[in-house]
Amino acid sequence: MITEVFRNYRRALKLAEWFIKNPNFLPITEDKPYLIPDVKIGATPRVEISSDDGVKLYRYEPMTEKQYETPLLIVYALINKPYILDLTPQRSVVRKLLQAGFNVYMIKWGDATIADQFSLDSYIDIFLADFVEDVKRDSGSEKVSILGYCMGGGMSAMYTALYPQNVKNLLFLASTLYFDRKIGGLITLADKRFFNPEEIVAPFGYVPSWFLTERFKILEPWGNYFGKYINLFMNAESEEFIDDFFRMERWIHDGVNVAPGAYVRYNQELYQNNALAEGKLYIKGKRVDPKKITMPTAAIVGLRDHLAPPENTLRFLDVIGSKDKAVFQADVGHVGLVVSRRGMALWDDVAKWLAERSGSLNKTKEI
Question: For the whole model, what pTM was predicted?
Fold first, then answer.
């Protein structure tokens, strides 16, 4: 008992020591009312290839002398920031893919304001369409592979169904694609009997990042509001654990505001009416037909994903036209797929699958 008391003192002192070494915090704003340490993230060098209205396309610096001829474009969700895919050198999906010989590009969506009234049509048929062309031009390839994470998977599916001639391979990472109330996760929170997304947009003119942050956290209230802080204290003797904890805290609370039109339509047509999977979605008057997704397609899912349960992704594979399908799974959650040890181990198999479908290895084009 006495030993544990002294150990608790040691834990408290270690936490205090950590904050003394890391005295800086992210700015508190009305959209991000959180006191979060400004810890270092985003480890891999990259260069900006193009930008449009605050939306940016990056290419990561190569790590191999040769790269596969088909470039890989990562399409992240409109919410949060994509540095979760490149958190540290040891926990970086981006780095894994670069080391496997892929030419990796990433879209970073902008932080919407009341002036940014972008529609879902704009994100798919303007931003995403233009950036795919930029990747093709920069890499010299006629096609790209696309990796969509979470909501980015849904957006990638929409684009691919409209422009299949541009896509060589398609990968869905913990993606929100098939919406059935029985699946659970975020689909439960979006149930049209209880939730009207227009009521969220009306007071602000956009969707504030704090609303999205708290909306996700409430799916696991004990763990997100209490349990993880107890776990932090119990592991406070490890500086590495504290570093990783606050990197995750930064990402969780360092969200982005979302354009109202895209958010409302994504919720009403996909979450509440399953329009994407049922072929009832239209982008700029063009029908999004999942049967036109005929290229090799892979699903990467976490068996303990409480935001996008596996069925949210896997059931979409049943409605697409591809005959070459693969499933990669790990016993982790939504974010664990890209930061945990089990999740990181999975990417060796994903990279091998993609390499077999990405053409020849050619001399790397320097940045």
Answer: 0.94
More reliable by pLDDT, 307 or 60? 60
Note whether 284 and 125 are within 8 A (CB): yes
* Eight-state DSSP code of residue 300: E
Q: Residues with catalytic annotation?
A: 150, 305, 334
Confidence band, pLDDT 50/70/90 cuts, at residue 104? very high
Amino acid at 291: K
- Dump strand ranges (E) for the chain: 46-52, 55-60, 66-68, 72-75, 86-88, 91-92, 104-108, 144-149, 167-173, 282-283, 286-287, 297-302, 325-330, 361-363
DSSP 352: H
Average pLDDT over residues 144-172: 98
Dihedrals phi, psi of 346, to nearest 5 degrees: -65, -30
Q: Number of H helices and number of E strands within the chain?
A: 15, 14
**C-beta of residue 46 within 8 angstroms of C-beta of residue 38:** no
Mean model confidence pLDDT for the chain: 94
